[in-house]
Every structure is written in structure tokens, then in C-alpha cells.
Input
Amino acid sequence: MPDDFKIIVFKTTYLTFKAERALKKAGIAYKIVTKPRDISSDCGLAVRVDAADLEVVTAFMNDGGIEFIGVW
Output
């Protein structure tokens, strides 16, 4: 995967869409993507963000109580 973006994976589709709503409201650039096959999770979707925004996005998720499985 290129280093210019990161994939944030959530356990459920609900959490993925919750993250999408929160990021949209905050004005943070994102894209909903299909989870890459080599990343394991129960949900088939993930959120892609610019690598430069990763620290802000993960802090935003933690502060908002939006749990994610990991970042790739």
C-alpha cells in the first residue's frame, strides 16, 4: 500500500458509518473503501484517510468513543 494514505478498520459496518458521519461533520477528508483482503475484520468496509491526517483522525476517533480495530 502506498504511504500517502492509511486504512482504518472497524469491527462493524455501524462503526464504520459512525466514523464517516463524524469525519464529515468535522470536515476531515476521508473515503469509505472496501477492506483489503489481507486485513482481517468482521466488517468489509474501512475508512481511508491521508497519512498526514492520521494522528488527528485517530485522536478524533478516540475522543468520540469510536473504536477501531487498527490502522494499516
Remarks:
- The two ends are 9 Å apart (CA to CA).
- The mean pLDDT is 90.
